[in-house]
Structure formats: C-alpha cells, structure tokens
Amino acid sequence: MGIKAAFSTTPQGMTKAPAGMDLTSRDMLKLGILVLEQEKFAEHQYISLAWINEMTEGYAQNGKNQYGYFWWSHVERYDDKNIAVISARGAGGQFIFILPEFESVCIFTSYGTRKPFQYLSQEIIPILAGGKISLDHH
Hints:
Blueprint (H helix, E strand, L loop, with lengths): L5 E2 L13 E2 L2 H12 L3 E2 L2 E2 L3 H8 L3 E3 L2 E3 L4 E7 L2 E10 L3 E6 L4 E5 L6 H14 L10
Antiparallel strand pairs: 1-2, 3-4, 5-6, 6-7, 7-8, 8-9, 9-10
C-alpha cells in the first residue's frame, strides 16, 4: 500500500499503540479505501474480510457511537434515511469517514475541532445523496 507511518514511542522504546501514529492524508485515504473495499486495495489482499468486520464491529456504546478495535461506527440521518458511517478518529481533529452506501471515503485533517461531524452531516452526506447543502456555517 506504500503507507509510511511513523509511531511515537515511550521512553522505554515501546510503541504507543492507541496514539501517536503519524499519517499523511493520502495514507489515511488508503486505509479508508482498504476498509471500504473490504479486504483488497489495488487488487492486493492486505487484511482479511473477517478482521475488517471484527475491528469495525461495535463492542462498546458511547451515545450514538459504537466502538470496535480503534474504529467507530454510527448512523447519520438524512432525508428520513439511515446512513451508516465507519470512522477512525485521531487526536486534534484527524478523521477517516467511510460511507459504504456512497462508496466514499472522506478525510479530515484539522486541529482541535469537532466540526468534521457537522460538515459530514450538513454538507458531505447531502452532496453525496444528491440533495441540498446548508449554507449556514454557524
């Protein structure tokens, strides 16, 4: 896949698994496509379908969000329809949003903001669904 991730380590040299992975937007997109395409990326199998299903399965509930193995899932409502969203969320506003219904992956790289969820629900999903978007950015 050509991903060149750098990981933060502890003073003892151990990888900080739940945090500290540095990825470019392009590499984030590759991970999103890998999950969206369900096991293959550029015709190469990197991960099994069983593992993708297991890691994106919700095992813990947090409000409307379900948490799997470093992946989240939730449902957005648009035009009286449930839209499934799978996401990876990083510190400071880094997000990979996967929208299987639209065969789309959206990447956000920002700092200290929760607005990606607002953009997702008010602009991205309506555009992908062929609807109108909100021009009110408050």
